[in-house]
Amino acid sequence: MTYVLPLWTPPALDIQGSDALFPIRRVHCVAKNYGDHIREMGGDPQKVKPKFFSKSAHAVVGGRDEVSIDYPLATQDLHYEVELVVALGEGAEIFGYGIGIDFTKRDIQAEAKKNAMPWDTSKNFTGAAAVSQLTPFDKIGEMTEGAISLSVNGEVRQAGNLNQMIYNVREIMDHLNGYDVLLPGDIIFTGTPAGVGAVEKGDVMSCQIEGLSDFTVKLV
Question: What's the domain range around 43?
Answer without folding.
Answer: 12-219
